[in-house]
Amino acid sequence: MKVKALKAAFPFTIPVMIGYLFLGIGFGILLTGKGYPWWLSPLMALFIYAGSMQFVAIDIFSKAFNPLNALILTLTVNARHLFYGLSMLTKFKATDQKKPYLIFALTDETYSLLCSTEPPQGIDRNWFYFFIALLDQIYWVTGCTLGSVAGSLVKFNTTGIDFVMTALFVVIMVEQWESSKNHLPVLIGIGVSAICLLLFGKDLFILPSMISILAIVTIFRKSIERRNVI
Question: Are 177 and 60 in contact (CB under 8 A)?
Fold first, then answer.
């Protein structure tokens, strides 16, 4: 059962594998380029496992540590995961012992896969979800390790490397747009985010955007679901 679920999950994670390997390599190079030891990169990938926050953490490490600012910044950057978790309550309800890891491993890309894919017939749903999450983290840890080792051996120009996270998000959005006939959720997300960006500025717009998107999608949930059927 487990082997079948692993084999079924792997093809769905290939796009994430490509993105995470390159993104992780970029992070590892960037981290070691700031003078940190190579082993810190895989360690962060194992226990923090938050791509965007790991990039932000590099700047936090480079400055005088302020616990309150670090806490607020972490909550702001990762606030979207609160809403990811709410939408996964039903899917994770019967996952038993796998639930803690599935919650921990719920990155943007894993969330996207869990929302958009269904296990093939005859495959255990819970193991399918688990292996999607596990494979994605393995890719991330591998990329971070390769990047940090390479960065410790060879000096790279790290200018622009931190943009790879933004590029990956754009690729995921385009992939979801092409795979779905109903583009309303994406348009709501883009529109609300743009309005909040204008109202609150680039440093404070994420949390209001997520709250507004959640409220709108909840209110118009039935209408959105009907468009999925059409």
Answer: no
> Residue 225: which domain range?
180-230
Q: CB-hemisphere CA count at 13 Å for 81?
A: 19
Q: Which residues contact residue 121 at a Cβ distance below 8 angstroms, ignoring those fewer than 6 apart?
A: none
| CA–CA distance, 204 with 184 (Å, rounded to integer) | 25
Contact of 135 with 9, CB cutoff 8 Å: yes
Number of domains in the chain: 2
In contact, 77 and 53? CB cutoff 8 Å: yes
| 140-181 pLDDT tens trace | 999 999 999 998 888 766 666 666 666 666 766 776 677 667
CB of 89 within 8 A of CB of 64?
no
CA distance 9 to 37: 34
CA 88 – CA 206 distance, rounded (Å): 20
Q: What is the pLDDT of residues 24-64, one digit of tens each?
A: 998 898 889 888 999 999 999 999 888 778 887 877 777 77
Question: For residues 62 and 60, what is the distance between their CA atoms, to the nearest angstrom?
Answer: 5
Whether 153 and 78 share a structural domain = yes
